[in-house]
Design a protein that fits this description.
Largest sheet: 2 strands, antiparallel
CATH architecture: Up-down Bundle
CATH topology: Hypothetical Protein Ta1238, Chain: A
Order of helices and strands: EEHHHHH
CATH class: Mainly Alpha
Strand content: under 5%
Shape: globular
Number of domains: 1
Radius of gyration: 18 Å
Strand order of the largest sheet: 1-2
Structural class: mainly alpha
Length: 188
């Protein structure tokens, strides 16, 4: 079965020229709105994870690459929740964060810890290029979580709490993954 190709008549719409952008439901928001900070942070996080995944594929680390693709898919779910007001009719149709997403991270963290050396010192990022990229993603993840906490506390977006918990676990997993990617070098 051939995939249907999505085409765009126009990428440049000029709709954001005045410093505004649209949520999923079409509602216009300022580009510096806290919601857009969260959505932008999620996009940046996904991009850095994509860079790490490309490096992992090059080095034949399929298991780790598969973990990252699952994380990237989940970030789209969080973004959908953040970009769709809970009281909008479209909200009921989007995918939602669940405990299974968090359990996935906890399971993968546990598995990675079995083969990871974490020295009891402050870690300086950059053991190799892929671990450094994962560390950048971890830092972006922490910023994303901070912005999401602000959205929950300042705007009452409590429905994002599961996504916030996911990001908290994700930053831990990314720390461990980065150390895991350096472990072979530490053993030598």
């Amino acid at each position: 079965m051939k995939k249907k190709e999505i085409t765009f008549d126009m990428v440049t719409t000029k709709g954001g020229d005045m410093g505004e952008t649209s949520l999923y439901n079409g509602e216009r928001r300022r580009k510096d709105d806290l919601i857009m900070d969260v959505v932008g942070d999620l996009d940046e996080l996904g991009a850095f994870l994509g860079l790490a995944r490309a490096e992992l594929v090059k080095t034949g680390r399929k298991k780790e690459s598969d973990i990252i693709i699952e994380i990237q898919k989940t970030l789209f779910i969080i973004g959908g929740e953040a970009a769709t007001p809970e009281n909008d009719k479209l909200f009921k149709n989007i995918s939602k964060m669940t405990e299974k997403h968090i359990l996935f991270l906890e399971r993968e963290e546990k598995n990675l810890l079995k083969t990871t050396i974490i020295r009891p010192v402050f870690v300086t990022a950059g053991g190799n290029s892929v671990s450094a990229t994962v560390d950048v993603a971890r830092a972006v993840c922490r910023r994303t979580e901070r912005h999401m906490v602000s959205l929950i506390r300042e705007r009452g977006f409590v429905y994002l709490a599961t996504g916030q918990r996911y990001l908290n676990r994700l930053s831990d997993l990314l720390f461990i993954l980065a150390r895991n990617l350096e472990t072979e070098e530490l053993k030598s």
